[in-house]
Give the backbone structure.
Amino acid sequence: MTETNLMSDTSPILSVNDLSVAFGAARVVDRLSFSVRPGETVAIVGESGSGKSVTSLSVMRLVEHGNGRLTSGSILFDAGEGTTDLATAGEARMRKLRGNEIAMIFQEPMTSLNPVFTVGNQICETLILHRNMSRAEARAEAARLLSLVRLSDAERMLDRYPHQLSGGMRQRVMIAMALACQPKVLIADEPTTALDVTIQAQILSILADLQRELGMAVVFITHDMGVVAEIADRVVVMWRGRKVEEGAVADIFANPQHPYTQTLLSAVPKLGAMTGRALPRRLALTVMDGETPRRIGEDRDHGTADITAKPLLAVEDLTVRFDVGKTMFGRVTHRVHAAEKVSFDIRPGETLALVGESGSGKSTIGRTIQGLQAPTSGRILYDGKPVADMTGDETLRLRREIQYIFQDPFASLDPRKTVGFSIAEPIRTHGLLTDNKAIRQRVEELLVKVGLEPSHASRYPHQFSGGQRQRICIARALSCDPKLIIADEALSALDVSVQAQIIELFMALQEERKLAYLFISHDMAVVERMAHRVAVLYLGQIVEMGSRAQIFETPTHPYTRRLLSAVPVAEPGRRGRLPLLEGEVPSPVRAVGSEPTILKHREIAPGHFVAADA
Amino acid sequence: MAGFLIKRFLQAIFVVLCVTLLVAYAIRLTGDPALMLSQGAGSVTEADLARIRTGLGLDRPFYVQYLDFLLGLFTLDFGRSFLGGTPVRELIGRALPATLALAFASLLVSIVISIPLGIASATKRGRWPDQIIRVLSLIGLSFPNFWLAIMLVLVFSITLQWLPPSGMEGWQSFLMPALTMGIILTATNVRLVRTAMLETLQQQYVTVARAKGLSETIVLYKHALRNCAIPLITYLGIQFGGLLGGIVVVERVFNWPGLGTLAFQAVADRDYPVLQGVIVVLSLLIVVVNLIVDIAYGLVDPRIRTE
């Protein structure tokens, strides 16, 4: 984050040389070398299975607790008091360094803090251990650390338990804990991946400030090229356990050398890349074919939406609330206002994106349309007919024509059934085909359609990668010829290169079958690429809705702007534009009797609606 | 909290009602106490037996006897023993402390042994310490408690003459009965601790604790163990019922003057009031222990406390 050239003459504080790590017979990290200087941020990027997290655990020598072994190389740590080789250091020496000289932040703030101890207890523990503080001193210092990571009311925060905090607050507690002893090296393993974008922007700016203040060396592990562009001085690209490229951040982005880096960068959706285009766009893909990249498909506009057709699905004034707090006599005290007077429609061939942060109600709306959740009020019309008035046969048809794809493809496939069985199940349930041979043939066609092999039908879900499993879920959704697919964060768990392939598959299927998508996502860059229209949700209400170009080029509601400004862009030249965002994502839980103000919408351009704030 | 306690109190009353009704009915199927009492008294006529029954109040209909017993409960009056006429409350007052002492000593033995062994087994998963602990646990599970009790008496009292074979005098007499019960509980608890620990050690906060530079002892006994407490406490609550059942047998072997011995004798003598009294106390004990378990959940896990 600081000027790299100023740092280049200082000697590295941490240098990893020729490091190999194995789990059993599998070599997960293969002769990796990189180094980091004080004040410098080195990003290690790569996709799942590239060995980047194992690298971070190896530096801490925690990989052995997971049955990993360091099979070669050295990890030299030199904080100006002589060099230690961490690869051969004893456990006692490592314990002195861990949390003290070298600290670590992990990906999942929800699971990184021990649920049964207070925040204060967990921070003080480190201070008492490494800085020999008394309990009272440690408590005062912990409060100071919490205010350093911009948590208000730090004193009271000390006595709270992790479950009482939001994800962003927990990650700030983690940072406070990691920085308690002013470490010389901070290893951050995907520290913002599980957070909403506005919270991610906060955390990144806190980290940058503290790094400047403390002069720490930071090893930042991530798969998100936008974050890399935002924070890194140098980048190490890992692929299948090896370093394939290393360089200054600007060079990596401007002039990637290794084919893998090129593919990776080409797959990253860049916010703002679509400016000036009215329609979503299908882009040619670069995929790795063994060791060489191969380009497939071509760039072209994606004009599948028929705006003159009558809506396939219309949602009118949909309100969904659920009761949460109850008194001992069963009286409801609090309700989640998941959706309040939400209205939109989707036409055949159209992709409508519902975007928003956690608690915005986007998933609840999807679940209500699918019939998994009863609406509190409002109507859902399918093909012009209210869903509530449908006969049994019509409901069955509805179930067939609206299909759902979830975020976690593994959790949504039965692990004990072959994927062929899972894909065939809707066909049998709806009686679309009865002949076993015909069903088998149909399953094989579907597998080919989503880019898999017919022979895959007899395999089980665990035999596939995450991307392949999501393809299987798509095949299952397609099996009953749906007209509308609700994709709830369907791309969020996938690596970017896989994500790009699935986006392409979604768009190809849309063109071929005039499918309509309700695309629920928090990822603005993906939405910009593939949606025809966008609805921005905030606390259960639509604050802005319009065409893709309207939302991304002339965002009008303050929340839409805030959301867009928080997205890191994969262009190092545009760094430093992240605004300083304060506050938490607000909660949709309200006391009974306290009704939210229903926002009124103004049409500021044809089809572009903006909530007029009260 | 007040609402919770009221709910649990009502539940307890219901449990005691059901248990006593079943016991009072079932014990009357075992035979006539008048016959037992008149044994060895030479020739007994039917009129004699009827007189004994009237004296004990057994000539009244079952529901009258039962209601009478329930009414007594309100004033903590369990009636008098058919044999000797000692108030049942007095008998229980003498036996209950002995049983409680033995039960808690057994639990203590089991906790002290099973937690370190379970943790060792989990951290050395698949290696020789784990294998040995698991085999020992299986052996412990396979022992019937009375057999183990007899073996201990044979070795420590008869052969070595280190410990008294029976009765309750001094701390030495606690060792064998507590060990007998404790070993059997330990065998299951070790497995429980191991499973819960294996699960907890997978959690990210354990890695985080290690990344802070904490020693393995603190990582295991502070960060991990507290998170295993919920399944452990749940199981200890369930185990307590089984423990009281097991104690009846073990108390007999060691001639321990507790509720088990009292209940055993009462069944043999068809001494209805004593047996009913013991059962009421035992079922109340189980209700109270489970209440303590529920309160303990909140103490160890703040997430439950806020619900």
